[in-house]
Amino acid sequence: MQESRPVVLVTRKLPDAVEERLRRECRPRLNPQDRVYTTEELIDLAQGADAILPSHTEQLNASVIGSLPDSVRAICSFSVGYDHIDLQAARERGIVVTNTPDVLSDATAEIALLLMLGAARRAHEGAQLIRTATWREWSPTYQLGIQVTGKRLGIVGMGRVGQVVAKRARGFDMEVHYHNRSRIAPDLEAGAIYHATLEDLLPHSDFLSIHCPATPDTRHLLNAERIALLPDGAVVVNTARGAVVDDDALIHALISGKLFAAGLDVFNNEPNIHPGYRELPNTFLLPHIGSATRETRDAMGFRALDNLSAIFSGREPRDRLN
Ligand code: 8YV
């Protein structure tokens, strides 16, 4: 009998439960060493594969997609973001592309809140004092941060993650403002105040949390001119993509005191981030762990597999992007 299970190139080591299901439902080419493949290796390993299950660490730009073998019919990404995949190039080659929305909204919103709190309450400096045994004193004016409770939160991109962040922020009595390409329905807004332009939103944002995708339009969306529109002493948080922020402008504003602090989980050129961030005491930095919970990484894998299995059983995948 001819084997009908699709051959799937899985570029990164996935959670055990996901790999078990992969072995049951597909013929996976796994990466137990979890080495990040070069483009050449990826193209080589894709020979004869029916599908690729990449993470955001693989750049599937037009040239890579153009070099994939004809056998590849689907790219089911283990990510909600898809800035690493050229959708148009994939469409032209008849390759279906999917992502994993919804299942990581809670985990990513948790990290946004952690960054907000950590940046505002100087968690990096405090932790450093403890770890380096340099904590010498307590005083009423020592290590003063700024309070999150009751402040205004500006959300850039009120999609799935932005909406969960707004909901959690209400638990801190924050007044939620947002900018989105279009206004969302009143029941989803839940009292959040819509601003038709980013320029309108910024002056209302004591805290600014970025949740828009990285596209050519949003590249360096947070630049020097826009940072200048934030209230003095604002806190900027990014759990979306580094490309949305102009690093030099953000670092300059953190040094000048225009901004009180920044909490960042995503960066340009990860993991070789702009060294300026590391040198500043008022940055609270995490290594792209927005969706890194056991529950969520399982759910992302299963969602990618649901999409894959739909495609190879002739059904429309739930999360088709192109
Ligand atoms: C993932 C993310 O960890 O899903 C995304 O877009 O940024 C992260 O939460 C990563 O992309 C996995 O490929």
Note the main attributes of this structure.
alpha/beta; 2 domains; 12 strands; Rossmann fold; 7-stranded parallel β-sheet; binds 2-keto-D-gluconic acid
Strand content: 5-15%
Strand order of the largest sheet: 8-7-6-9-10-11-12
By oligomeric state, this entry counts as single chain
How can the largest sheet be summarized? 7 strands, parallel
Helices and strands: which structural class?
A: alpha/beta
> What average pLDDT do the residues reach?
97
How do the helices and strands follow one another from N- to C-terminus?
EHEHEHEHEHHEHEHEHEHEHEHEH
What CATH calls the topology of the largest domain is: Rossmann fold
Number of helices, counting only DSSP H or I runs of 4 residues or more: 13
What is the number of domains? 2
Helicity level: 25-40%
Note the overall shape: globular
Low-confidence stretches: none
The total beta strand count reads 12
What is the name of the CATH architecture of the largest domain? 3-Layer(aba) Sandwich
Distance between the termini: 33 Å
Class of the largest domain, according to the CATH hierarchy?
Alpha Beta
Give the CATH H-level superfamily of the largest domain: NAD(P)-binding Rossmann-like Domain
